[in-house]
Amino acid sequence: MKIQLTKRLVMEAKPAERHYEMRDVQIKGLLLRVNPSGHKAWVVEWARGCRRTLGALSELTLENARAEAAQVMAEALKYGAPTLVKPVREEITLGMFLTDQYALWAATQLKWGRGTVDRIRKGFGDLLERRLSAIDQRMIDRWWADRISTISPKTRAPVGKVTASRELAALRSALSKAVEWELIDTNPLTRIRQKIVEARKVVRYLAPDEERRLRQALAERDRRLVTARASGNVWSIRSGRAQLPELPVGGFADHLTPIVLLAMNTGLRKGELLSLDWGDANLATKMLVVRSEVSKNGRQRHMPLNAEALDLLRMWRRQAKGVAGNQSALSSGNVARIFPVGDFKKAWTSLLKAADIRGFRFHDLRHHFASRLVMNAVDLNTVRELLGHADLKMTLRYAHLAPEHLATAVAKLGSSTHQ
User: Fold this and answer.
1) DSSP count for the chain of H helices, then E strands
2) CA dihedral of residues 357, 360, 366, 367 (deg, nearest 10)
3) What is the pLDDT confidence band of residue 362, given thresholds at 50, 70 and 90?
4) CA–CA distance, 125 with 327 (Å, rounded to integer)
5) Is the pLDDT of residue 270 over 50?
6) Quick one: which of 79, 168, 370, 405 is 20 to 30 A from 221 by CA?
7) CATH no. of 208-367+382-388
C-alpha cells in the first residue's frame, strides 16, 4: 500500500501473520518491510523485481532512508541500475556463524576463544536459530531483561548483571567480526549503550583477626595431614603395603598453604598462580615473572618476592617432588609447574570453614594484598603496576583505604596557604 510515511507511522507499524510493505509516496521506490517477527527494514525498488535492502529501521531514520533511496533511484535512472548494487548474501543463523566461521577464528586469535564461543551459546541459546541480519537492538534489550531475571539452576539465583554483561560483550565482538567479513552490513549492538554493571561495592579483605585465623587454620591443616600420613605409613608397614612419601614435620602437607600464602604476598590471580613454572621463579634475584600468555591483560610483569614468599617457595621447592606423592614437580633444573593441580575449591572451602571466615573468595586475597599496600602508604600507581591493572581506574577502588595518607596531602595544602 502507498502512504505518506511519517516517523510515528513507521515506529507504530505492527507485525502481522505475514510480512507486508508500506510504500512511501514522497520518494518513489522507498518502502518499509514489516516482518512477522517485528523486524522492520527499509527497501528501495528501482524496477519490477529489482530491489535492495537499505538497512533496518533501528539503523536508518526515515530521513536517511529517503536520502539513500533518492540516490539509488537517481543512479538507476542515469545508469539503468544503482552503481552500488550489493550481491545477494547467503543468510546464515547465529548458530551457523559461530560453528562454521567464528569458532575457528576465535580458537587461534583470542586468548579464551573456545570459552568465548561457549559463553555466547550459553547466554544466547534462544537466538542461535535467528538470522544474523534479523538480530536487532529491540531483541537484545528484551534479551537483557529476560536474562537478568532468569534463575540459574546451579545457583538457584538470578543470573548476575556481570555475567549478562560479559555475554553481551562477547556477542558484540562476534558481530563486529561478522561485519568485517561482510556477512552483515552493521553491528546492531554498537548502538546499544554499554550496560552499567556495578563492581562489588565493598573491597573484601582480611581483618587482622581473620588473617590470624586463616594462618592458624593452614598450619593446623598441615600438622593434621602430616600426622595422618605418618600414621598411615606405620599401618602400611605393619600390613606389608607400600608407603606413601613422607611429609616433613613443620613443612607443607600439600599445595594449599604455599598457594594461599603466595597469593597473599603477591596478589596474583588464581589462573596466574596455577600457570607458574619453576622457570618463572628466580629465587636468586627474588623475582617472579607472570608471562604474557597467562596474564589477564596479555602483558608480562615482574613481581618482587618478599621474605615470606621467598621462604615458602624455597621450602616448597625442596619438598615438592615428594609432597602428596607428586612426582611431576621440579627436580634439578627441569622446568615444571610450581603447583601442578587443576583446582582446589573443596580444600579452600574447608579451610574457610575451619577459620570461621565468611563471605570471602580466593580472589579476595588479591584485594587483601592491594589493601595492605595502600594502608602502608604505597602510592596507587605502584599498586597498579604490581596488580597488573591496565587502567588506574581499577586501582582507585583501594584509594579510600589510605585516609591518613590523603589527609596528610590535604594538610600540606593548608599549611602552604598560611605562609
Assistant:
1) 16, 8
2) -100
3) very high
4) 43
5) yes
6) 370
7) 1.10.443
**SS3 at position 298:** coil
The pLDDT of residue 84 is 57
CA distances to 70, 75, 145, 229 from 78, rounded to whole Å, are 12, 5, 49, 91
Report the alpha-carbon distance of residue 245 to residue 360 in Å, rounded: 33
Query: What cell was used for 10?
Result: 513507521
Half-sphere exposure of 191 (CA within 13 A, CB side): 15
pTM of the model: 0.57
Bridge partner residues of 42 (DSSP): 32, 55
Q: Residues 382-416: pLDDT tens digits? A: 888 888 887 777 777 776 665 555 566 667 665 55
| Amino acid residing at 211 | E
Query: How would DSSP label each residue in 3-17?
Result: E---HHHHHHPPP-S
DSSP assigned state of 190? T
pLDDT for the residue numbered 332: 37
Residue pLDDT, tens place only, 285-306: 999 999 988 887 778 899 999 9
Q: C-alpha cell of 372?
A: 595492605
Length in residues, the chain: 419
Contact 341, 316 (CB under 8 A): no
- Asked whether residue 268 carries a pLDDT value surpassing 70, the answer given is yes
356 contacts 317 by C-beta, under 8 angstroms = no
* pLDDT tens per residue, range 119-143: 999 999 989 998 888 888 888 888 8
What b/e string do you get for 171-182 counting C-beta neighbours within 10 Å, with b at 16 or more?
Answer: bbbbbebbeeee
d(CA 164, CA 311): 42
The domain defined by 2-79 folds into Double Stranded RNA Binding Domain (3.30.160)
